[in-house]
Amino acid sequence: MTANSQIILFHYPHSPFSARVLYYLALRGIPYDQCIQPQILPRPDLARLGIRYRRIPLLSIGRDVYLDSPLILRTLERAAGAQPSFASTATLEQRALEQLLAKFALDTSLFKNIVQVLLPQTPLIHNQAFMKDRVDMMGGGPEFDFGNFVLATRPDAIVEVKNAVEMLETTLLADGRQWLAGTAVPSLADIEMVWPLHWLFSTPGALPEEHISPRQFPKVFAWVDRFEAAVGQARKALRAPEALSGERVAEILKMAAADEAGDLVDPSDPLVQARGLQKGQLVQLWPADTGSRHKTVGRLIGLTDKEITIETTEGEVSVRVHAPRHGFHVAPLASEKANLS
């Protein structure tokens, strides 16, 4: 991240993954601007940058665009100038808890179960354009009825979400602590766990209150309320983000500096060795789970055990796209592979 680089968040209102990043920006006191995106495809603002990746949020710092909220938070954490306006998880146990909670929220079935609990109780279940878009994101065919799927699986999902809430109630919050890592103010550990629960709790009509309610789980609901209040207070001290058009963002990124510090294709990486990947090679990048049909094309400029970086070649403006190694694939384009053989 270069000094004084403008931070721009690409998101849409009520996106739970975007909320995760917005919480962080507020609690860290990091100013940013935003480019609001449609809830469903197409997203011409991103196409203009040569980005086919279809999930939200994305965040640009200078000419570097970061995909996936875990990488976004990790990048912001290591950025110079981040304000210590929330607690540092200083001990090994606290840092381990932070990482375990992130995996529990993202890499287990918790989020999927929350979607299955929440979606049937919202008007979106009757929005054909939205449902068709989400089937595409999941990789389903035209015959797959996502609405019937979530309705049929909702009872089991309620039980799974209830068990997750009960785990917090009877373990981390059972001793009366205010924050999950035992800190005096919110920490990254709280952000890693609170965002899907806050989404469920705050969506009107979504909560199955006969199974999950403040009466049954008072400590968890009080913790979510405390967190919401802390974020609200932090936002008062942060300037309001400017809403930027896609055209304006393209102008800004075209003139912005790039962070080239991590431009390394590690020759010892097993994937590099197996596929003969080379710096400057034309590749495609895509997520391993949802949205895998939408592959971004560019020149490979970085690949380590933590991160993949490509420079886009298909948009009006070329940007450097960063994705986490975990949960993403990168491979040569078929034509490029043939040329190299």
UniProtKB/TrEMBL annotation:
<dbReference type="InterPro" id="IPR036249">
    <property type="entry name" value="Thioredoxin-like_sf"/>
</dbReference>
<dbReference type="InterPro" id="IPR058268">
    <property type="entry name" value="DUF7962"/>
</dbReference>
<dbReference type="Pfam" id="PF13417">
    <property type="entry name" value="GST_N_3"/>
</dbReference>
<dbReference type="Pfam" id="PF25907">
    <property type="entry name" value="DUF7962"/>
</dbReference>
<feature type="domain" description="DUF7962">
    <location>
        <begin position="116"/>
        <end position="236"/>
    </location>
</feature>
<dbReference type="InterPro" id="IPR004045">
    <property type="entry name" value="Glutathione_S-Trfase_N"/>
</dbReference>
<protein>
    <recommendedName>
        <fullName>GST N-terminal domain-containing protein</fullName>
    </recommendedName>
</protein>
<feature type="domain" description="GST N-terminal">
    <location>
        <begin position="9"/>
        <end position="82"/>
    </location>
</feature>
<dbReference type="InterPro" id="IPR036282">
    <property type="entry name" value="Glutathione-S-Trfase_C_sf"/>
</dbReference>
